[in-house]
Amino acid sequence: MSREQRLAEVFIELADTLVDDYDVLDLLHTLCERSVELLQADAAGLILADQRSVLHVMASTTEQANLLELFVLQNDEGPCLDCYSTGEQMVNIDLGEVEERWPKFRAATTAAGYRSTHAVPLRLRGQVIGALNLFCTDRVTLTDADIALAQALCDIATVGLLQERTVRRSEVLAEQLQSALNSRILLEQAKGVLSERAGIGVDDAFVLMRAHARRNHQQLGAVARGVIDGSLPSSELTADGH
Questions:
Q1: Average pLDDT of the residues in 213-235
Q2: Three-class SS of residue 129?
Q3: Of the residues 1, 41, 186, 193, which has the fewest C-beta atoms closer than 10 A?
């Protein structure tokens, strides 16, 4: 399959989420995964603002990326925060050259084995609602075409969050983002519960829950609740994975 064909598939996949009652968490995780695939990255994390403009980690491709994004928010330092606050792309950042600007971020990311990073805003008509952060184990330089692609992927996800037919008032947007945040908290709890019950890693636990949600046309939050309250036994999820 050519790159052009794969790009078309990815945009169709993302566009397919732009329907009523779509799963916000699934959309954001898909954005992270496809960005890693198409942009020579090794991991990705995404932060999103709630109704009080407080940022939260909403999606990541690995637990390590999730922890790095949490570290960024806890220490109030890093390119993705600058990206969110300015609405500008922060790309082709060599971590060996930013010790003075982001010393804590640089120390944490290099300790995790990354050598470069990129941050792209989720924005629409001047409204910035989050940022996508890409982590690379090599010094990866994105071309102008790569940067345009990264922004286009973020833009289509942003449209999914701000689409006019669903979000007509700021209050509706706030409720939508808060609902996604609540589901994210449940998902993190469920990953830990399933990891312990099934004796698997938290990344594998997420893969099983997401596959179950898609296979049964359920939202991730509903699956997470089932795992936590025991109505969805771990044996069912692990059996689905085989």
A1: 91
A2: strand
A3: 1
